[in-house]
Specification:
- The protein contains 7 helices and 4 strands, in the order αββαααβαβαα.
- With 144 residues, it is α+β, with helices and mostly antiparallel strands.
- The model has no long low-confidence stretch (mean pLDDT 96).
- It is globular, with a radius of gyration of 17 Å.
- Strands 2-1-3-4 form a 4-stranded mixed beta sheet, sandwiched between helices.
- α3 runs parallel beside α5.
Length: 144
């Protein structure tokens, strides 16, 4: 359930997206808030400026949280973001241990507004293969 406090922080994330546009960046903004609503960090998309396909604000904040927050603190945070995180960012959010994500536009709404944002083709994948060989480093790592 989205509260008035959530809406206030979500508006701030939308403001970060608007600011990104004025800087020549893509229109995406995010922030990470503590349990009490204190903003811990914020970011906007800098894919173009940084020439870095991973410079999405959600992933930048997830990486920041993984470096800077202990697991318990990260689990009590909320990420507010102007658009629903893509699969790359969602994976980073899960691995960083963030507690919650609140977003403004869904992926479907974004694609309806900007069809080019949904034009990513599926990359063909083949596998699994070489299980007996590939399992060794994983098992070695697990044994420590």
């Amino acid at each position: 359930m989205i509260t008035e406090a959530d809406e206030t922080l979500l508006r701030r994330a939308i403001g970060l997206a608007a600011r990104a546009v004025t800087l020549g960046d893509a229109p995406y903004g995010s922030l990470l808030a503590a349990e009490d609503g204190t903003v811990l960090a914020e970011a906007h998309n800098t894919v173009r400026r940084d020439d870095d396909i991973s410079a999405h604000p959600e992933l930048k904040l997830a990486r920041w949280a993984a470096r800077e927050l202990d697991a318990g603190t990260a689990a009590r945070t909320t990420m507010y973001t102007s658009c629903q995180p893509c699969q790359m960012c969602a994976g980073g959010i899960v691995r960083s241990g963030l507690g919650r994500v609140v977003y403004a536009l869904s992926t479907e709404q974004l694609v309806a507004l900007n069809p080019a944002s949904g034009a990513w083709p599926e990359v063909p994948q083949d596998g699994p293969a070489l299980f007996a060989e590939a399992r060794t480093p994983v098992e070695d790592h697990r044994r420590g």
